[in-house]
Design goal:
By secondary structure, the chain is α+β, with helices and mostly antiparallel strands. It has helices spanning 88-104, 112-126, 138-152, 186-189, 200-210, 222-240; strands at 3-15, 21-27, 31-37, 56-62, 70-79, 174-177, 182-184, 196-198. The protein is built from six helices and eight strands, in the order E-E-E-E-E-H-H-H-E-E-H-E-H-H.
Length: 252
Amino acid sequence: MASIKATAVVLKTADWSESSRIATFWTSEFGKVRALAKGGRRLKSAFDNALDLLTVCSIVVLRKSPGTLDLLTEAQVVQRFPRLRDDLDALYAAYYVAELLNDWTEDYDPHPLLYDESLATLRALGDRPTVGAPALDIGPRVMRFEMALLRELGYNPALDVCATCAGVVERKRLAFSAAAGGVLCVRCQGVLREKRPLSPEAWELLRAFAAAGDEWMRPRNAAVRAEVRQVLGHYVTYLMGRRPRLLPYLGS
């Protein structure tokens, strides 16, 4: 039985027995890892507080045979996010990130770029601000993460051409279809019933979230951000087949 070592984010824990629990971790090298933490429910366990939700920790996991839970042998705290203790909006956003990672990824299917984006998001949400730093803008940060998640898992919405026919889209006559997987041209809008109007400004913001660089950080109108929040929420819900539990608690 081989052991693996990684730096991980705690996505979820669940009670297994009176003294043990199952912990789900998100790592760069191995993707999602689930392991049994024997004694993890005890007040003075060998893992101390390393299994607290959203904690970054270094772990050692003993790989077991297929169909059997891996065994967590070591877990030590690397980083915590103090802002999450007293900023409820940031906490809900961080829980949402953990929910999407846990529900959308497979065990031992690594996505290093998604790991980097998720850790950057959690740090932006959870680190204490430095003196004189601008206020945390939670909504755009989370929407940026959602677009990175969609891209890495193969669900990046079509934004530059029609999702149905790959034809040219007109900036002033746009619609978004979750079923089609992106924006629709005028002709396809008349064929598909499942669609919602999309303003030119919201379309531009979606493209900024999908693109490299920092254009997505530029201040935007509150109504435009709210529209993009609705579009992404609808798209994520459609792909999951249910509404994420934390989605109603997010702002734009």
